[in-house]
Amino acid sequence: MTPLEKIQSMRMPFAELKGVTFTEADQDRVVAKMVVRPDLCTLRNTIHGGAVMAFADSVGAAATVLNLPEDAKGTTTLESKTNFIGGAKEGTTVIATATPVHRGRRTQVWQTRLETEDGKLVAVVTQTQLVL
Predict the structure, then answer these.
(1) Helices (H) then strands (E): counts for the chain
(2) Phi, psi of 130 (to 5 degrees)
(3) Closest CA to 125 of 101, 103, 89, 90
(4) By CB neighbour count within 10 A (0-12 exposed, 13-18 middle, 19+ buried), where does 16 fall?
(5) In what order do the strands lie in the sheet with 29-35?
(6) Residues 64-112: pLDDT tens digits?
(7) Engineering a disulfide at 87: which of 42, 46, 125, 127 sits with its beta carbon 3.0 to 4.6 angstroms away?
(8) Are 93 and 31 in contact, with CB atoms under 8 Å apart?
(9) If you ran DSSP here, which 8-state letter would residue 92 be given?
(10) For the whole prediction, is pTM greater than 0.85?
C-alpha cells in the first residue's frame, strides 16, 4: 500500500466532514485540498479561522501517521500555532502542504502551508504531535 493509499484508507470523520481530499503523500510531504464551502465561512464569505486550523491539523496528523514508529499506537496534537496571512473566499480550493520540522521518538513537529490554487498564502500552521 502506498503512503497515499494508507492515508486514504484511514477513517478521519472530521476531515471527511470538512471535505478534505488527500492528493499526495510520502514520509516527507503530505498534500490535501479542501473547497471553501458556505458552512466553513465567516463574515463576507471568507474561510473561518477554525476551518483553516482544523484543515491543517488533519493534514499534519496524517503526515505524522506515515512517520510513526512500528510500536506506536497513534498520535494526538499537543500544540498548534497558526499565522493567518490572507483569506480564501467561498468556492476557492485551498491546498495544504505539510512538511516535517522534527521527527523524534516521542514527538513530531510539522509545518503546514495553506494556499489557494493560484498560490495566495492563507496561513502557516506549526503543530506538535505526540507519538502514543
Answers:
(1) 3, 6
(2) -85, 135
(3) 101
(4) exposed
(5) 21-26, 29-35, 93-103, 107-116, 121-131, 75-84
(6) 999 999 999 999 999 999 999 999 999 999 999 999 999 999 999 999 9
(7) 46
(8) no
(9) -
(10) yes
* Three cell numbers written together for 126: 506549526
Which residue do the cell numbers 506515515 mark?
66
Which residues lie below 8 Å from residue 90, measured CB to CB, with a gap of 6+? Answer: 36, 37, 38, 41, 45, 46, 47
Task: Mark residue 2 as left, alpha or beta (left: phi above 0; alpha: psi -120 to 50; beta: remaining).
Answer: beta
Can you give the C-alpha Rg of the chain in angstroms?
14
DSSP state of 47: B
Strand 75-84 and strand 121-131: pairing? Answer: antiparallel
Cα distance between residue 64 and residue 61, in whole Å? 5
